[in-house]
Amino acid sequence: MKNKLITSICLCGLTLTLFTGATDVSATDFDQMIQQKNNDIDRLRTQRQTVQQRITDLTKEIAAINQEAQGLLAEQEALYTVIDQLAEDIAELQVRIDKRAANIEEQARETQVNGKSDQLLHVVLDADSISDFVGRLHAMTTIVRANNQLITQQKLDQEDLARKQSASKDKVAVLHATQSRLEAQKGEIEGKQADLNVEVSTLAYQESSKEDEKQQLKAEKEVFEAEQARIREEAAQAAARQAQIEAAQAEQETSPAVVDVVEPTVEEGMDAAGADRDR
User: Fold this and answer.
1) Contact criterion met (CB below 8 Å) for 199 and 51
2) pLDDT-based confidence at 136, cuts 50/70/90?
3) Cβ neighbours of residue 203 under 8 Å, at least 6 residues apart?
4) What is the rounded distance in angstroms from the CA atom of residue 232 to the CA atom of residue 253?
5) In angstroms, rounded to a whole number, what is the distance separating the alpha carbons of residues 235 and 13?
6) Helix, strand or coil for residue 255?
7) Averaged pLDDT for residues 176-186
8) CATH dotted code for 2-254
9) pLDDT tens for each residue of 193-236
10) In this structure, are residues 242 and 7 in contact, taking their beta carbons and an 8 Å threshold?
């Protein structure tokens, strides 16, 4: 009987050990899964922060481009003022050139048609004296020099006109090229920023999903541990009751036997006395 009691107690202890071992392994599995979720969350958070920093850097680049664009607008206003002045200068030069061209053309026509050069030569040769000759020669030289200066100034004005027209076109071309470059850079950066915003949103969603999964695992772990605790408690109570029952049975089996004494009835006593007398 003692062996039976010991065996029952050992079986109860083994049952509790098995329950405890299974609980520890399962709880460890939950902890490992939760830790994996934490690792995933940390990784996603790091990626999101990195992308967010890139967005911040791009925002600074856009701000720098906007600032450069503002400076370009101020430069544009100044350039338009210069261009307007150049347009006035060009118009004025064009008027002078046109008038001078008309005078030169008229003089050339008179020289060819009327023989003005021969007339001028006769004027010099018809001088009455040396002083008259010198005076007439000086006058003729002055006229020729004036005509040459007229032609020279015409060339200079035409060259100046060409330079100013070219400078005006170059300034406008540079301005438009700079504007196009800034717009292209800004558009490219804004496109990258939009892509990164989508990436940040995706990472944030994934991070939130992992957090939800982690919380779900924690809740499942709590339910599991509560259920295992209940099972262990019931097993312990059952084992305790079984041990009490077996202990009581063992105590009854090991106690000395009790003999019941039955008192004889009156009739049985009289019969026994008569039997004694007969003997």
Assistant:
1) yes
2) low
3) 44, 47, 48, 51
4) 31
5) 10
6) coil
7) 84
8) 1.10.287.2610
9) 888 888 888 888 988 998 998 899 888 888 888 888 899 999 99
10) no
Query: Which tokens go with 91?
Result: 């118009």
- Give the number of residues written for the chain: 279
Residue 136 and residue 138: Cα distance in Å, rounded?
A: 5
Distance between CA atoms of residues 270 and 249, nearest Å: 44
Between vectors from CA 22 to CA 16 and to CA 23, what angle results, nearest 5°? 90
Neighbour count for residue 171 (Cβ, 10 Å): 17
Give the residue from 239, 237, 235 showing the smallest Cα distance to 23: 235
Distances 135 to 17, 119, 126, 131, 144 between C-alpha atoms, Å: 142, 16, 12, 6, 14
| pLDDT of amino acid 200 | 86
**Which tokens in the block code for residue 265?**
């009835």
Alpha-helical (H) ranges within the chain are 2-114, 116-125, 130-254, 266-278
CA distance linking residue 111 with residue 99, whole number of Å = 18
Cβ(179)–Cβ(72) below 8 Å:
yes
Q: Is the pLDDT of residue 8 over 80?
A: no
| Angle of helix 116-125 versus helix 130-254 axis, rounded to 10 | 130
Q: Can you tell me which residue has the tokens 């026994």?
A: 272
Q: Say if residues 203 and 52 touch (Cβ distance below 8 Å).
A: no
Instruction: Please report the sign of the dihedral spanned by the C-alpha atoms of residue 63, residue 69, residue 70, residue 71.
Output: positive
Contacts of 56 (CB under 8 A, 6+ apart): none
Tell me the CB-side half-sphere exposure of residue 164, using CA atoms within 13 A. Answer: 19
Tell me which residue of 5, 4, 44, 31 sits closest to 222, measured CA to CA.
31
Torsion angles phi and psi, residue 259, rounded to 5: -95, 125
